[in-house]
């Protein structure tokens, strides 16, 4: 098995509906791949399959050679896969900073006993966690909002915070589900830069679901297109843009990057 | 064999009365998503209202044939309790509608205590006899089997109310509004639903059902006192959850299952080696076992939230 | 609630609210009547009696707290209550430790008075009553009896235990042992099982609340044999609720409403005019517990703990409403039991069984 | 100094309770009883708050764990402490105290084991379903205890009596302080914020690498342990316990304290435990109107202060610190 | 037809709108654009009565509707497709649509309009009996719009209809919006992040910033405005 993420003939059914059907594709380490397709094509479902929210009806998913299905979401996260959610799911009663810190549990060397004794090692660790969390927030321009309640932020900031929180788990693979939704074009521009930046900085592989073609075409190295749960095309942005099937099913007209 | 059949019938009738109380419980829960602990107390008020009405009407009722008298007293108590339910909602719950759900739970406990202790003050602590609204004479006693008129009537009324309630919730516009409201109250007002009216209606209906339960229960077990609602209320709650809370046929099914198993455990306690004193816990054991295997109850839909 | 020079403060703990309020209210009514009477008659030792009653809401834990409150805040000289043995057991060690004599009107569990020499009761205890009913049943020639116990009430469990012991040891057969919990309304399952055993009688050791319904349902199921029980049956609502179904059933009690002795008739009349109902056993016991206390105060001519304790302990042949009461070495009342039966909707006396 | 403030507060509180304990003989028995009840209620409410408030589960069966602890501790005291005390060096105050502590811990451990047994299968249930299962467990415990033999170890419906009154001011408040400290420290750390995350969004928490099941079970078992301790204290305060005293209404009482205090707010819950216990005593003067007044107060409180007495606002606390 | 004057709204202590005024003439499409948190959704919520305004007036067809309850406002045929779709998750697609027609009495009209919605969004017809909550994001958006159309609106408020919608469908939806506007004579107030598209189909636009109107004008002018281009149109 190779490094990175590999899906092989993955299928999931919901009752009579085959939401994802015999889907295969892979994401190599450090790659930035787009996953696009019409509404209801099964993109979010693919994310849910990778992160253990759903278990595939058949087929297999490997990450760095280890089989994923059957593992609990938190175990998969510990393997190095993190995600954001299409419908924002922040910890609504926690502050912005705490949302990020909570995701840094994997960093901790000590658990419950440590938090009871509260010795110097504990303090050091807490300080470290705080520092790193603030660093991440700073990248996304959210450091000033550290004490705000997560739910009182506007939509765009909440989306950014979701990305920060996912990054805080120190993933090797980041799954982004429509990160640009609800942003205006100039904010989208900024987001594209940020995604590129964190990908380089943290040496991430990224799987991006997004309906904004400017964003997808602008930053993805390769794009997979699915419709009704099946892959209908895969290739570079250039290839995809003029792929007749993709145009028919998804784009409408070919777009320029 | 006869004995087993008799026990099964005992269980069926016992279960049908649980089912009857559970209907109102589950409906209010289904719409408003909170456990109305005061349901059992409205049930008790239903019985006391019927007693009061029966006394007040006195000879008028006495001269009627019993089915007429039953309908008069039943419908009147249901109406009184419906109004009471609406009043309780308006005074105690309405302002909490947008608050955390657990607050409503505490309020419900408060309302429940209030009703119980006020009733104890008003009616006294001692049990009172309840008039024989439905004859408890045996319908047919073939050999060793006995079924009373009252039992059959209660079963029939339960079935009728189950069908009526199911119809209201699934087939009428009000029912659809109730379900929509339960899912998203903001969206439902955007559809033009007057949420307050729907909630009042729900409470009124739920309380009327509770009252019907109270009257029929008291007809079967003719002694009433201010705390009489606690235990059936709890059992009905269990029945509702067992069937899948919010699910109306589920509540009926849950009631029957609890009634029958409880009766069988009591009836065969010596044979199976569980003293019948443990039967009080049987409902809960069944509940826990079923929920472990079916976390949303027997007929409840798995509310898997889409991520 | 200040301690006044000219009054003797007596404490009472009763369940005035909650699910056993029906017993607590009765015993309180009886106690209060005794206090009112003595005050009307000029009080004791030249002082009026002041009764301070605390409600324990029928809840565990409360009885102990209010007993402490009465002793340390109200500075009571003696403590009356509780009806339920469980709650009396909470109060007893507190009264004992404080050296305040305590008289329970109706806690029948033997353990209650084991707390120490300051703790008394005016009712008989479970072993006695269980045995009495067993003797009675055997005397009637009923050799096969089924038992129905309220497992939530230690009282009922106790009666059953001693009934069972005596009955089995003296040639009787128990055809079936069933149980329920107070608050239950449906007993058909147990009764159906009991019916299959074909007993000569059913010993229902619980309280009247359930027994009335048990009788009703037994008759519905075609069970015609009599039901037997203890003083927990004693309440006018037994017949009100049970109606015809209670006909021909028997229970043991401390006294009979129908007893024509002037003291009892006067008590019944007074109580009825005040509370609109005939006094039940709890009321009579509450009344007697207070009266015995007053009698002891008079004899001791003091309200100091040790003196009062000794005077109570010395109670012999006191003519109470609930019989001639003598306290034995274990501070339990010994008195005869009367057997009552229901006939034409009335509770009538049948016989007296001495201890 | 500031860095160790939590530990210092803990030690100071322990010392104070020991100090007060030394003079507690001169405290009026009734007031002492109230104070100890306050302490026990604090333990019950703070520990339930870990489950219901911080972790967002909804248990309605706390009284069951209290019962298990009460019975466990009492049975140890009644049956075994006469053998243990000589081993600890005779019947002095010290040996008795240690034997009592052992009894309490045994009660706590019994309760924790029950918590684990109930929690493992049932914590995957959500919201009201968990509520009813815990309530059911509560009733099952009660029914089982009630149906034991009257002359047996558990004492049947009458329960256990003659438990020595070992519960002192020191033990109660020392354990209350430890309970507050443990719950507070657990929640107030990077590890412990996992509890809050589980409450806010279980799916997201799982996706952030948080083992949601373990957190829920940890909270549940810890909560049960302290409920068991509280039960032991209660038994050795009241000297008699009976199954009926641990019915679901008792669980409701604890839930009421938690919600009235403010879910997830330790300070609020402590305040509510004090206020409600004292209120209970005040209302005695209302006699038969007492519960009516109480229930009305409850309803009004919920309308007037739905967020509880002292709502938890973790992000506000943080702000103050960083400012 | 709709006039908003000096509207102030706050959420607890947070002020979201500081005096917004706008006009939506009969039969027009007017768009609101602005950055995240500018107060666009809040404005719509205030119009449909979901949040109470602190001060200011909202007039519709000459009547003041500022203090009316949401269901009263809907009965005046102002319909709102809210942010986040808010479909009834456990109801089927069909039942969601029936809910949309809650205040409609005319069965024939409902049947006709349902057909029209299915014609606009064929996917909804395919999934008529699926629980709305299990539909994909885009599918839910279609349902939300369809549901609002069944309320027989004269005035339709759309909060980011293109959010999470595939490009092909975005185009389709915008075409439909224009179509509805023309064919059914609906007045439309559109909130969009996709400002380019929104300005293309609207006749007039408002730019909101931190709770007040920063700029307004005919859509073409706004689109040409360099400031708008830089801040909202992505250069
Ligand atoms: N739990 C579920 N039960 C039933 N059907 C489901 C469930 N989850 C997803 N589906 C169906 O599977 C299909 C794929 O959904 P998914 O959310 O993956 O789409 P998507 O590609 O993310 O679409 P969008 O771009 O609109 O977000 C949809 O038709 C949806 O209705
Ligand atoms: N329920 C709420 N509670 C508190 N503050 C809120 C709430 N909803 C919105 N806000 C605040 O009100 C302001 C305006 O929010 P609004 O949602 O109207 O913005 P918007 O323009 O629609 O932004 P977006 O493009 O992100 O949807 C923001 O600062 C937001 O944080
Ligand atoms: Mg999606
Ligand atoms: Mg918005």
UniProtKB/TrEMBL annotation, chain A:
The terms under GO molecular function for this entry are: ATP binding; ATP hydrolysis activity; L-isoleucine transmembrane transporter activity; L-phenylalanine transmembrane transporter activity; L-valine transmembrane transporter activity
Provide the protein name.
ABC transporter ATP-binding protein
Write down the InterPro entries for this protein, in alphabetical order: AAA+_ATPase, ABC_AA/LPS_Transport, ABC_transporter-like_ATP-bd, BCA_ABC_TP_C, P-loop_NTPase
- Give one Pfam family, short name only: ABC_tran
Q: Name one GO biological process term.
A: L-isoleucine import across plasma membrane
Q: Which PROSITE patterns match?
A: ABC_TRANSPORTER_2
Has the keyword Nucleotidyltransferase been applied to this entry? no
Ranges of residues in domain ABC transporter: 5-253
Sorted keywords for this record are: ATP-binding, Nucleotide-binding, Transport
Species annotation: Luteolibacter luteus
Q: Name one GO cellular component term.
A: plasma membrane
Q: Does the keyword Transport apply?
A: yes
Automatic annotation (TrEMBL), chain B:
Q: Which molecular-function annotations from GO does this UniProt entry contain?
A: L-isoleucine transmembrane transporter activity; L-leucine transmembrane transporter activity; L-phenylalanine transmembrane transporter activity; L-valine transmembrane transporter activity
State its location(s): Cell membrane
Read off the InterPro entries from this record. Answer: ABC_transp_permease, BCAA_transport_permease
| A GO CC annotation given for this chain | plasma membrane
Superkingdom of origin? Bacteria
Give the membrane topology, semicolon-separated if more than one.
Multi-pass membrane protein
Q: Which UniProt keywords apply?
A: Amino-acid transport, Cell inner membrane, Cell membrane, Membrane, Transmembrane, Transmembrane helix, Transport
Membrane-spanning parts: 12-35, 42-62, 68-92, 104-125, 145-169, 190-217, 237-260, 272-293
* Stretch forming the signal peptide: none
Is Oxidoreductase among the key words of this record? Answer: no
A biological process from GO: L-alanine transport
Record family assignment: Belongs to the binding-protein-dependent transport system permease family. LivHM subfamily.
* Record-given protein name: Branched-chain amino acid ABC transporter permease
Q: What is the lineage of its organism?
A: Bacteria, Pseudomonadati, Verrucomicrobiota, Verrucomicrobiia, Verrucomicrobiales
UniProtKB/TrEMBL annotation, chain D:
A Gene Ontology term for the protein's cellular component:
plasma membrane
Major localization listed first in the record, in broad terms: membrane
The signal peptide annotation in the UniProt record is none
Q: How does the record classify its membrane topology?
A: Multi-pass membrane protein
Q: Which GO terms describe its molecular function?
A: branched-chain amino acid transmembrane transporter activity
Where does it live in the cell? Cell membrane
Q: Which InterPro entries match?
A: ABC_transp_permease (IPR001851), LivM-like (IPR043428)
Q: Which domain of life is it from?
A: Bacteria
Q: Which residues cross the membrane?
A: 29-51, 58-78, 98-118, 130-148, 168-187, 217-234, 254-279, 291-310
Q: Which UniProt keywords apply?
A: Cell membrane, Membrane, Transmembrane, Transmembrane helix
Tell whether Transmembrane is among the UniProt keywords: yes
Q: What is the protein's name according to its record?
A: Branched-chain amino acid ABC transporter permease
UniProtKB/TrEMBL annotation, chain E:
MF-aspect GO terms: ATP binding; ATP hydrolysis activity; branched-chain amino acid transmembrane transporter activity
Which BP terms does GO give this entry? L-amino acid transport
Q: Which InterPro entries match?
A: AAA+_ATPase, ABC_branched_ATPase_LivF/BraG, ABC_transporter-like_ATP-bd, ABC_transporter-like_CS, BCA_ABC_TP_C, BCAA_Transport_ATP-bd_LivF, P-loop_NTPase
Per UniProt, which keywords does this protein have? Answer: Amino-acid transport, ATP-binding, Nucleotide-binding, Transport
Superkingdom to which the source organism belongs: Bacteria
Instruction: List each copy of the ABC transporter domain by range.
Output: 2-235
UniProt key word Nucleotide-binding: yes
Q: Does the keyword GTP-binding apply?
A: no
Q: Cite the SUPFAM superfamilies for this sequence.
A: P-loop containing nucleoside triphosphate hydrolases
An example of a Pfam family matching this protein is ABC_tran
Name the family the entry cites. Belongs to the ABC transporter superfamily.
Question: What is this protein's record name?
Answer: ABC transporter ATP-binding protein
């Amino acid at each position: 098995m190779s490094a990175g993420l590999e899906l092989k003939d993955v299928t999931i059914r919901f009752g009579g509906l085959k939401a994802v059907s015999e889907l295969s594709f892979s994401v190599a380490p450090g790659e930035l791949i787009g996953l696009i397709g019409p509404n209801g094509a099964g993109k979010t479902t693919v994310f849910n399959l990778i992160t253990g929210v759903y278990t595939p009806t058949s087929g297999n998913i490997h990450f760095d050679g280890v089989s994923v299905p059957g593992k609990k979401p938190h175990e998969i996260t510990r393997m190095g896969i993190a995600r954001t959610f299409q419908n924002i799911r922040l910890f609504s009663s926690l502050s912005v900073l705490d949302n990020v810190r909570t995701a840094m549990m994997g960093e901790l060397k000590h658990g419950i006993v440590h938090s009871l004794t509260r010795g110097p090692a504990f303090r050091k660790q807490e300080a470290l966690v705080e520092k790193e969390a603030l660093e991440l927030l700073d990248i996304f321009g959210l450091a000033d909002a550290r004490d705000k309640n997560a739910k009182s932020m506007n939509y765009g900031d909440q989306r950014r915070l979701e990305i920060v929180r996912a990054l805080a788990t120190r993933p090797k693979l980041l799954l982004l589900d429509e990160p640009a939704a609800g942003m205006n074009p100039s904010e989208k521009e900024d987001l594209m830069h940020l995604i590129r930046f964190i990908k380089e900085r943290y040496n991430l592989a990224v799987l991006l679901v997004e309906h904004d073609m400017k964003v997808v075409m602008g930053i993805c190295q390769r794009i997979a297109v699915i419709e009704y749960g099946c892959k209908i095309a895969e290739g570079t942005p250039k290839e995809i843009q003029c792929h007749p099937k993709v145009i028919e099913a998804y784009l409408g007209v070919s777009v320029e990057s | 064999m006869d004995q087993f059949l008799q026990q099964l019938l005992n269980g069926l009738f016992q279960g049908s009365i649980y089912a009857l109380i559970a209907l109102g419980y589950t409906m209010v829960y289904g719409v408003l998503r909170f456990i109305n602990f005061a349901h059992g107390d409205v049930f008790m008020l239903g019985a006391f209202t019927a007693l009061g009405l029966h006394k007040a009407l006195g000879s008028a009722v006495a001269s009627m044939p019993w089915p007429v008298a039953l309908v008069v007293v039943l419908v009147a108590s249901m109406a009184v309790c419906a109004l009471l339910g609406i009043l309780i909602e308006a005074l105690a719950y309405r302002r909490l509608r947008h608050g955390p759900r657990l607050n409503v739970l505490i309020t419900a406990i408060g309302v429940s205590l209030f009703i119980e202790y006020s009733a104890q003050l008003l009616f006294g602590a001692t049990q009172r006899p309840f008039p024989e609204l439905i004859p408890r004479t045996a319908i047919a006693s073939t050999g060793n089997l006995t079924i009373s008129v009252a039992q059959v009537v209660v079963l029939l009324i339960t079935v009728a109310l189950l069908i009526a309630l199911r119809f209201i919730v699934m087939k009428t516009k009000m029912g659809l509004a109730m379900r929509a409201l339960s899912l998203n109250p903001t969206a439902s007002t955007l559809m033009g639903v007057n949420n307050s009216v729907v909630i009042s209606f729900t409470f009124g209906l739920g309380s009327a059902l509770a009252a019907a339960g109270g009257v029929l229960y008291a007809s079967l077990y003719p002694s009433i006192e201010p705390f009489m609602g606690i235990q059936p209320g709890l059992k009905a709650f269990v029945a509702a959850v067992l069937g899948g809370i919010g699910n109306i046929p589920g509540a009926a099914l849950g009631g029957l299952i609890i009634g029958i198993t409880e009766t069988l455990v009591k009836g065969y306690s010596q044979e199976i080696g569980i003293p019948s004193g443990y039967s009080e816990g049987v409902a809960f054991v069944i509940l826990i076992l079923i929920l472990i295997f079916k976390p949303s109850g027997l007929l409840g839909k798995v509310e898997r939230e889409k991520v | 609630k200040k301690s006044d020079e000219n009054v003797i403060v007596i404490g009472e703990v009763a369940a005035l609210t909650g699910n056993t309020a029906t017993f607590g209210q009765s015993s309180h009514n009886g106690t209060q009547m005794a206090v009112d009477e003595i005050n009307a008659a000029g009080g004791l030792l030249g002082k009026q009696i002041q009764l301070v009653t605390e409600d324990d809401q029928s809840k565990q834990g409360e009885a102990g707290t209010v007993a402490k409150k009465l002793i340390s805040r109200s500075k009571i000289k003696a403590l009356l209550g509780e009806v339920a043995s469980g709650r009396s057991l909470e109060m007893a060690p507190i009264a004992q430790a404080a050296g305040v004599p305590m008289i329970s009107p109706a806690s029948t569990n033997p353990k209650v008075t084991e707390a120490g020499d300051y703790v008394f009761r005016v009712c008989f205890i479970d072993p006695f009553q269980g045995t009495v009913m067993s003797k009675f049943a055997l005397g009637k020639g009923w050799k096969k009896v089924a038992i129905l116990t309220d497992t939530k009430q230690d009282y009922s469990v106790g009666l059953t235990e001693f009934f069972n012991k005596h009955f089995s040891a003296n040639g009787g057969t128990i055809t079936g042992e069933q149980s329920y919990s107070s608050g239950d309304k449906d007993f058909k399952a147990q009764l159906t099982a009991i019916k299959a055993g074909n007993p000569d009688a059913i010993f229902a050791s619980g309280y009247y609340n359930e027994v009335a319904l048990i009788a009703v349902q037994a008759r519905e199921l075609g069970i015609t044999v009599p039901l037997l029980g203890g003083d927990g049956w004693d309440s006018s609502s037994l017949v009100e609720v049970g109606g015809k179904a209670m006909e021909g059933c028997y229970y043991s009690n401390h006294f009979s409403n129908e007893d024509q002795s002037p003291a009892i008739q006067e008590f019944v009349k007074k109580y009825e005019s005040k509370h609109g109902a005939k006094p039940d056993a709890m009321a009579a016991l509450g009344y007697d517990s207070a009266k015995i206390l007053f009698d002891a105060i008079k004899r001791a001519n003091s309200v100091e703990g040790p003196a009062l304790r000794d005077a109570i302990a010395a109670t012999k042949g006191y003519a109470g409403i609930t019989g001639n009461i003598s306290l034995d070495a274990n501070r339990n009342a010994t008195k005869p039991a009367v057997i009552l039966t229901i006939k034409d909707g009335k509770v009538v006396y049948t016989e007296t069984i001495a201890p | 100094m500031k860095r160790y403030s939590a530990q210092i507060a803990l030690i100071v509180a322990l010392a104070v309770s020991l100090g007060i304990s030394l003079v507690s003989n001169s405290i009026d028995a009734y007031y002492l009883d109230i104070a100890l009840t306050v302490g026990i209620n604090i333990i019950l409410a703070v520990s339930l708050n870990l489950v219901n408030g911080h972790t967002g589960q909804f248990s309605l069966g706390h009284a069951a764990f209290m019962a298990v602890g009460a019975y466990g501790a009492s049975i140890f005291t009644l049956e075994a402490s006469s053998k243990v005390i000589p081993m600890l060096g005779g019947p002095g105050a010290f040996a008795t105290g240690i034997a009592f502590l052992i009894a309490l811990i045994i009660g706590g451990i019994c309760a924790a084991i029950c918590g684990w047994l109930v929690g493992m299968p049932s914590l995957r249930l959500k919201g009201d379903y968990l509520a009813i299962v815990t309530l059911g467990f509560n009733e099952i415990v009660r029914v089982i205890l009630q149906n034991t033999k009257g002359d047996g170890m558990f004492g049947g419906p009458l329960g256990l009596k003659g438990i020595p009154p070992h519960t002192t001011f020191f033990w109660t408040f020392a354990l209350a302080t430890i309970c507050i400290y443990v719950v507070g420290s657990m929640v107030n750390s990077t590890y412990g914020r996992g509890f809050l995350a589980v409450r806010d969004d279980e799916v997201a928490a799982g996706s952030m690498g948080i083992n949601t099941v373990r957190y829920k079970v940890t909270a549940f078992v810890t909560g049960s342990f302290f409920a068991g301790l509280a039960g032991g204290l209660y038994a050795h305060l009241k000297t008699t316990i009976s199954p009926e005293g641990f019915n679901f209404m008792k669980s409701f009482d604890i839930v009421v304290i938690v919600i009235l205090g403010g879910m997830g707010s330790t300070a609020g819950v402590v305040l509510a435990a004090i206020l409600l216990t004292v209120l209970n005593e005040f209302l005695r003067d209302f006699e038969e109107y007492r519960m009516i007044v109480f229930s009305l107060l409850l309803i009004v409180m919920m309308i007037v202060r739905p967020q509880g007495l002292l709502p938890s606002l973790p992000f506000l606390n943080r702000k103050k610190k960083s400012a | 037809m709709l006039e908003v004057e000096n509207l102030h709204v706050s959420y607890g202590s947070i002020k979201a709108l500081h005096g917004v005024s706008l006009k939506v003439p009969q039969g027009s499409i007017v768009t609101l654009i602005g950055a995240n948190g500018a107060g666009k959704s809040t404005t719509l919520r205030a119009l449909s009565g979901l949040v109470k305004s602190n001060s200011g007036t909202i007039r519709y067809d000459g009547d003041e509707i500022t203090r009316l309850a949401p269901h009263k406002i809907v009965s005046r045929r102002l319909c709102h497709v809210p942010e986040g779709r808010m479909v009834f998750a456990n109801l089927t697609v069909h039942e969601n649509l029936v809910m949309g027609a809650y205040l409609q009495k005319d069965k024939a009209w409902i049947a006709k309009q349902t057909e029209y919605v299915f014609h606009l969004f064929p996917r909804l017809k395919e999934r008529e009996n699926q629980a709305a909550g299990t539909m994909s994001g885009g599918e839910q958006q279609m349902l939300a719009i369809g549901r609002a159309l069944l309320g027989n609106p004269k005035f339709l408020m759309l909060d980011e209809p293109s959010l999470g919608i595939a490009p092909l469908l975005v185009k389709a939806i915008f075409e439909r919006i224009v179509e509805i506007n023309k064919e059914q004579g609906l007045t439309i107030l559109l909130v969009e992040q996709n400002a380019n598209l929104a300005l293309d189909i609207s006749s007039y636009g408002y730019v909101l910033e931190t709770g007040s109107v920063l700029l307004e004008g005919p859509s073409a002018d706004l689109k040409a405005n360099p400031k708008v281009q830089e801040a909202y149109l992505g250069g």
